[in-house]
Amino acid sequence: MTPFDNPKVAAAYDALPNDTRSGALALRDLIFETAASLPGAQPLEESLRWGQPAYLAPKGSTIRLGTHKSARFALFVHCQSRLMADFTSAFPGEDRLDGNRAILFDDTSQIDPARHGWLIARALTYHL
């Protein structure tokens, strides 16, 4: 696991319910692994946006992780981007979604490194 540089982000994870925290941390690991695998890997900024852990590469679009009213945890992307439309075209019917803003999860076993890593890579390089 990548250590936390920002104590406020670490505190936000600590404040999550256990089942939400384990899923969000698994997605966090996938975000850092995906970022490191990209050509010309850019540094990630880990911060809080709307009280949730958020990840942004210099030429990317923000990814947020957190709770959702219809799931234990979720991966959020910018709702006005084409990220979710591209994702659902590439992987139709594979995930439970909240419109064009989030993938919903109830268990860490639902995280697919290939499929969800694809979306993360697209978000981290969105403006390239």
Largest sheet: 6 strands, antiparallel
- Which spans of ≥5 residues are poorly predicted at pLDDT below 50? none
N-to-C terminal Cα separation, in Å?
A: 27 Å
Question: What's the SSE pattern?
Answer: HHEEEEHEEH
How are the strands ordered across the major sheet?
1-2-3-4-6-5
Mean pLDDT: 95
Q: Which word captures the global form?
A: globular
What proportion of the residues form beta strands (DSSP E)?
15-25%
Using the CA coordinates, give the radius of gyration. 13 Å
Count helical runs.
Answer: 4
> Helical percent range?
25-40%
Number of strands: 6
Class by alpha and beta content: alpha+beta
Task: Itemize the secondary structure elements and their pairings.
Blueprint: H1 7-14, H2 18-37, E1 45-49, E2 52-56, E3 63-68, E4 71-77, H3 83-90, E5 96-98, E6 102-105, H4 113-124
Antiparallel strand pairs: 1-2, 2-3, 3-4, 4-6, 5-6
Helix pairs in contact: 2-4
Task: Describe the 3D structure.
- With 128 residues, the protein is α+β, with helices and mostly antiparallel strands.
- Helix content is 38%, strand content 23%.
- It is built from four helices and six strands.
- The chain has helices spanning 7-14, 18-37, 83-90, 113-124; strands at residues 45-49, 52-56, 63-68, 71-77, 96-98, 102-105.
- The chain has a six-stranded antiparallel β-sheet with strand order 1-2-3-4-6-5.
- Strand 2 and strand 3 (63-68) form a beta hairpin.
- Helix 2 packs across helix 4 (113-124).
- The longest helix has 20 residues, at 18-37.
- The model has no long low-confidence stretch (mean pLDDT 95).
